Structures are given as structure tokens and as C-alpha cells.
């Protein structure tokens, strides 16, 4: 705020105010001490003078020797509490103060009495009364004008000196504080510089608080400030990437939904215009309407599934139960052979069951998507191989996949969905379909040695590998092959290339089960490897 003083100025003024209080206390104490010291010195001097004057008063009855200039001396006879002045005497015109101290001295019970009094017309005096003999009191009065003048000069010197020291302290302190607080000003400038950057499209903050000067506290503040900027920088990058992906997702989803909707509307118009035509033509248009509606329904189902898997606070659609993975894969293979008779498929599995807790419908969807991906992106006649095995591993945690058994949907935490490791514990070794066919003898199932024996009783990974002998996936596209709406060939028609959600669904469902999916290989041998952790199987 413009009306408020800066921190350095306020600190300097605060130090100045504190110093002013200290100077005032010191000056007052020094002044009082000096005045009392001078009065004690004057009283001692009066004592020495009265020693001589007492002898004079005893010998002559009065003091004949003249006192110091400005001093007064008087001898009083005190009877019945009343003091009577002996003359001749060197006294002021008003002797009330001298008579009062002479009357008070016998009653004090001491040999002498000292007090300060103001004599009218003369000023302040120090009065000292001492006993000469019984009933006779000697009173001396010394002026305090010199003492008061010295005190005033001392006060003047103190005021001037302390004022100069205070001004110098404030100015020097302001300069020192400004230099010491300069790193804080630099931090403020850095913060203002950050506000001048447009962070809507960029996720980077090219501003940092630098400098080596400053106290350890300033260094700690600078380090904490830079650490905060690093965190903000990372958050902005994540936000910018999330917004970019969201915009692309919305655009792709809108485009994908627009195509079947336009087809539905077009076929509906054709159906209306062809109402008077032959029943065969109406049935053909109605079949195309149903096909486009079914295609749009599949797309919406995939989008809904991905949205539910991504949500952290909703229940993911997993219903876990004890399932034989080998039997599940064989059923998926049978369905694939029925739908794609032009593509030879071989299945390799162990002789026994591979039972684990999973959602059979969702894992079946994963296997179907992988097989469909192999059929869609490879020419007719391409060999496809599926292998089911078990990989024992001591590093796999002893936990079941996310979810509960029965019909209650399982809650999937965000860590499971978004932070699953991208690297599988074991890299898949690509095997050519030709070699696989040679080992398995073409169509049908083969029960090889993998996954058999005592290894099935421990912890490890249930592994499903889908390999095809197609043209392969370019290395540049493998890192994004599981992104939503991503296609290796953007020009591929949607009737053939799909919506681009199949592999995204595969990855999300694999991560929801606590597993991973990866792609390896090259032209002639592309392998998708699904790994699901399993423990305590029967």
C-alpha cells in the first residue's frame, strides 16, 4: 500500500525510538547523579568552613571572618524551640529559612543538619546547621546557582549529543537495513515478474530468485521460494498438458460421435425417401441405421468406461472373482476364430488352470481388444498367436487386484489408475508367428511346459501375450499407441481402423487390475504383453 512505510524505514524508526528512550533514561540518570555529586561536594566544602567558623563563634560569640562570596553565616541562640540571631551577622534580608534550620537542628538529634531552601530574593541555597555549644547553632548558606548552571549545561550537551547520535543512528540503520533487506526486495520483484507472464498457454516459469548475498534466513527464504516456484512450474506443466489432452480428447470425441450421428441422420432420410420403394431396400437402410447406432453405442460405452476408470472418487466397474485365465483366453480365441476365419490363430497355455482374482468380463474385453487390434491392422491371412503363462517373481507384492469379489463394484484409487509402472518386470521376447506355428502345428491349442509345475504355487505375474506377423508399429508411435483416439495411420477409415479407444481401454483396465500392458517387437512380429499380479492361487 502506498500510504504505509517500507519495512526498512519502520525498523529504522523503531530502533530510533528505542534509542531515544535509552538516551532519555541515561541522560536523566547522569544529570541526577551529577547534581547530587555537586551538592555533596558543596556540603563537604561547607563542613570544612564551619570547622573554622565554629572556633571563631566560640571565641567571639559571632563569626568575624567573612565567608566565601555569596555565602551567608549566622549564629543563633536556641531556647525553647525559638532561634534568636546574634549580631553582627552576614545574613540576607529574609532570614526565615536560616532560622528554621537552626531551630530544627537540636531536635534532629545529630551534630549537623543539611537541607535545601529557597531564600526570597536570593534563589536556591544549601543550608547547613551545626551545634557550636549547648543552645548555640551555627548556620551557613551556600548558593546553588553554580550547581544548577552546571546541570543545565550538562543537559544541553546531552540533548545536542544524543540528538546527533540518534539522527546518525537512524540514517545509518536505515542504510544497513536497506542493504540487508535488499534480497527481500529482489524476491518481491521476482514475484511481480511472475505476474507479468502469460501462463494460459505456457506451463513454464522462466523466473527464479537468484543471488548469494543475505543472512542465512534470507538464503533459506530464497531456497524455499525457488522450491515453491519449481513445484508451481511442475504443476503448470501438468495442467497445460492435461488441458491440451482434454482439448484433443473433446475434439476427437466430438468428431468420432459426429460421424455415426451424421450417418444415422443420412440413413434415416434415405429410409424416409425409400418408404415407397421395395422392402429389401428399406431393410438395407434399416440395417445400416442399426449398425451405426451400435457403433455409436460401443464408442459411448468405451468413453464411459474410461471416464469411470479415471475418476478417483467413484466406483470403478470391477467385479472380482476367482477365474481361470487360461479358459477365459481360450473362449476369446474361439470367438476370434468365428469372427475372423481368414486369420489362423494359435493358443499356447500350460496343462493346468491359472486361477486368480479378476473381473472376467473386463479381462475378456482386454483380450478381445488385443485380438481385434491384430485383426484390424494386419492383412488377411496374417498369423496371430496367444500365449498364457506364469512368471514367478519375489518382487511382486502380496496383494490382490483392486476390488472385491461378488457383485459389489470395486473402488479403484487414483494411484492404481494413473501411477501404475510403465515398465514391466520382464520384457517380452518377440516370437515370430511362423516359429510359433511350427511349434504348435497351425490352428488349435498347445499345452507347452511354460506355466506348469510347482512354480504356479508362488507369487508372480499372470502373462498374456498376443503376437501377430503384421507390418508392425513404427518405433516413434509405440510411446503413444495406448493414448486415446490415437491412430498410427490418421488416414485410416473408421470402419476399418476403429475409434482409437481400444488400446486405451486395454491399458486402463490392466492398470485397474494392478497390472501393466506393453508393446514390443517390429515388422513381422508385434507383441502386446499383458501382466497381472497374482498371489495365493489355487
Describe the structure.
Residues 252-536 form the Histidine kinase domain. The protein has 13 helices and 15 strands. It has 538 residues and is an alpha+beta fold. Strands 12-8-10-13-15-14 form a 6-stranded mixed β-sheet, with helices on both faces. β4 (123-133) and β5 form a beta hairpin. α7 (325-339) runs parallel beside α8 (360-376). The longest helix has 58 residues, at 216-273.
Short description:
Helices cover 50% and strands 18% of the residues. It is α+β, with helices and mostly antiparallel strands.
Radius of gyration: 54 Å
Computed structural class: alpha+beta
The chain-level mean pLDDT equals: 76
Which term fits the overall shape? Answer: rod-shaped
Sequence of strands across the biggest β-sheet: 12-8-10-13-15-14
- Oligomerization state: single chain
Q: Could you spell the SSE succession in H and E letters?
A: HEEHEEEHHHHEEHEEHEEHHEEHHHEE
Low-confidence stretches: 396-457, 491-495
Which percent bin holds the helix content? 40-55%
**Biggest β-sheet strands, sense, barrel:** 6 strands, mixed
Proportion of strand residues? 15-25%
Topology, number of strands? 15
Amino-to-carboxy terminus distance:
73 Å
Count structural domains. Answer: 3
Helix count, DSSP H or I runs of 4 or more residues: 13
Transmembrane segments: 12-33, 154-177
Catalytic activity: ATP + protein L-histidine = ADP + protein N-phospho-L-histidine
Domain Histidine kinase: 252-536
Region (Disordered): 394-458
